[in-house]
């Protein structure tokens, strides 16, 4: 039993949520995560003493800033996760409860959104429209794209596809398997706050530290399962071995404990050399290498998409098999 659902209805909720995502994609208006982002921004503006401005309070203590960040995380994340858990705990017929879990999963998943944001970059590069490809890439990454060429754009899109495959899809599925719709909500809200506050800048280094650390903890197992899945589904005769070798040798050098395994394994699986130099705020940052092989080109973007899509199918099949195995055990 999972939050009142037997395993058959859990399987129905899982399938329902993924089918809703495949059919409908990202909600164009009034998306809950967009509303959450605005609310989180308002909370941060209220509690973060180091927000930029003429009254910048550089004297705020480290402990105070960390405590305020933890309080802000709690105010932003816990009410939504608690509401989801309360709704799912209400007495209702099993089909209705499964539908509720499915809808919560749908709002948290981003598989179709990945495709809809990434493949247009490939189409623009195929058409030789660099300005359009740069504009599309700038929507999904924080690095500079104004002067980026095809290789830079293809690398940025491929890295984002691999990393967000874990953040927007597999981490969500993992926590849905653990705690149903409320688990998916908790993970997705925490991951969104990490994307908003988890920077080592003056503004967020202390205030956003709790958001970063909590996301690291929630993502620890999903990230490694994602890295293993990328390796298992690597195309080519030596893809799996190469992905595992890149994971083992390159992940420790990456600044994020979870992005490192995911991106190094994914890059190795695709036979690509990712990482390296990237421009942020007009300054070149030399990042550790990821993967092994050739530089990324436009055609590698749909290859990365197929790896994420196939991994989604693997996870779905595995979760359904576990659910039905538990039902008949």
TrEMBL record:
It is a multi-pass membrane protein. Keywords: Cell membrane, Cobalamin biosynthesis, Membrane, Transmembrane, Transmembrane helix. It is found in: Cell membrane. One of its GO terms (biological process) is cobalamin biosynthetic process. It comes from the Bacteria. The keyword Metal-binding does not apply. GO terms for molecular function: ABC-type vitamin B12 transporter activity; threonine-phosphate decarboxylase activity. Pathway: Cofactor biosynthesis; adenosylcobalamin biosynthesis. GO terms for cellular component: plasma membrane. PANTHER family: COBALAMIN BIOSYNTHESIS PROTEIN CBIB (PTHR34308:SF1). NCBIfam families: cobal_cbiB (TIGR00380). Belongs to the CobD/CbiB family. Converts cobyric acid to cobinamide by the addition of aminopropanol on the F carboxylic group. This is Cobalamin biosynthesis protein CobD. The gene is cobD.
């Amino acid at each position: 039993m999972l939050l009142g659902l037997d395993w058959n209805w859990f399987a129905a909720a899982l399938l329902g949520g993924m089918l809703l995502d495949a059919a409908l994609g990202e909600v164009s208006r009034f998306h809950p995560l967009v509303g959450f982002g605005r609310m989180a921004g308002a909370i941060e503006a209220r509690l973060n003493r180091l927000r930029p401005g003429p009254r910048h309070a550089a004297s705020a203590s480290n402990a105070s800033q960390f405590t305020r960040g933890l309080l802000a995380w709690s105010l932003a994340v816990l009410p939504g996760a608690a509401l989801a858990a309360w709704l799912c705990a209400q007495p209702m017929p099993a089909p209705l409860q499964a539908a509720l879990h499915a809808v919560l999963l749908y709002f948290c998943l981003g598989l179709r959104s990945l495709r809809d944001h990434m493949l247009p970059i490939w189409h623009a590069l195929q058409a030789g429209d660099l300005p359009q490809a740069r504009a599309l890439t700038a929507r999904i990454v924080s690095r500079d794209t104004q002067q980026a060429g095809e290789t830079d754009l293809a690398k940025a899109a491929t890295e984002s596809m691999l990393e967000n495959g874990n953040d927007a899809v597999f981490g969500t599925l993992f926590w849905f398997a653990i705690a149903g719709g409320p688990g998916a909500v908790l993970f997705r809200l925490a991951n969104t706050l990490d994307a908003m506050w988890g920077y080592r800048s003056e503004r967020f280094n202390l205030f956003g530290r709790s958001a970063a650390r909590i996301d690291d903890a929630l993502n620890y197992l999903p990230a490694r399962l994602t890295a293993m899945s990328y390796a298992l589904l690597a195309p080519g005769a030596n893809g799996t071995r190469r992905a595992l070798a890149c994971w083992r040798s390159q992940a420790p050098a990456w600044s994020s404990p979870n992005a490192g395994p995911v991106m190094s394994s994914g890059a190795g699986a695709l036979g690509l050399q990712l990482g390296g130099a990237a421009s942020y705020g007009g300054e070149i940052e030399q990042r550790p290498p990821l993967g092994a092989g050739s530089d990324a080109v436009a055609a590698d973007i749909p290859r990365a998409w197929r790896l994420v899509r196939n991994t989604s199918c693997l996870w779905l099949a595995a979760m359904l098999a576990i659910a039905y195995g538990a039902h008949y055990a």
